[in-house]
Write a structure and sequence with these properties.
Blueprint: E1 2-3, E2 12-15, E3 18-28, E4 36-43, E5 49-54, E6 59-62, E7 65-75, E8 79-84, E9 90-94, E10 110-116, E11 119-124, E12 128-136, E13 149-154, E14 159-163, E15 171-175, E16 180-184
Antiparallel strand pairs: 1-6, 2-3, 2-6, 3-4, 4-5, 7-8, 7-10, 8-9, 10-11, 12-13, 12-15, 13-14, 15-16
């Protein structure tokens, strides 16, 4: 059991029967009244972000998390198959677990599968991935001064906004957290 003064970002706790990861927290000591802790918790199963305020004396069950490096092998209609980098065991996870991130993964990509109490619950992609642009509109001469952007389709099928000077066939670096163009690779 842990108290609110032991909170750390990324810590996993059980609260009201659900599993949450601490996204943000702030200890608040108002001039009048007792201190409290304001937090933002992400529900592990639904992904919803909730705001909660706790008293300093409240206790929570801390869940043990573990990250294992794995390689993305292939996907099937409803699941994605990974291979453990150490034991070479294969793990199949539902595609719904990777919603919004699956289209940034390439075959043989190294990812971290996060386990809570021995059960896989999340996949963390590398922060940046280099992907080839398959399709994008041609940039019009003179438009680059405005600093505009255009939509581009990557080799994995994902659509991202890129600067007007980027052409099909170029390799670009994408931030997997925000799905934004960073630079040419």
């Amino acid at each position: 059991m842990i108290s609110t003064n032991q909170f750390k970002v990324g810590m996993t706790i059980r609260y009201e029967g659900d599993t949450y990861r601490i996204a943000e927290f702030q200890h608040v000591k108002p001039g009048k009244g007792g201190a409290f802790v304001r937090t933002k918790l992400r529900n592990v199963s639904t992904g919803a972000l909730v705001d909660r305020t706790f008293r300093p004396e409240q206790k929570f069950e801390q869940l043990r998390t573990e990250s294992r490096p794995m390689t993305y092998l292939y996907d099937e209609p409803d699941q994605v198959v990974f291979m453990d980098a150490e034991s070479f065991e294969q793990l199949a996870l539902p595609k719904s677990l990777l919603e919004g991130r699956f289209d940034l993964m390439t075959i043989n990509m190294q990812v971290d599968v996060v386990y809570i109490d021995g059960e896989p619950f999340d996949v963390e992609l590398p922060t940046f991935v280099d992907l080839k642009i398959v399709e994008t509109a041609a940039g019009v001469r003179g438009d680059t001064v405005s600093g505009g952007s255009k939509e581009a389709v990557l080799e994995t099928g994902a659509s991202v906004q890129v600067p007007l000077f980027i052409e099909p066939g170029e390799v670009v670096r994408i931030d997997t957290r925000s799905r934004e163009y960073v630079t040419r690779a």
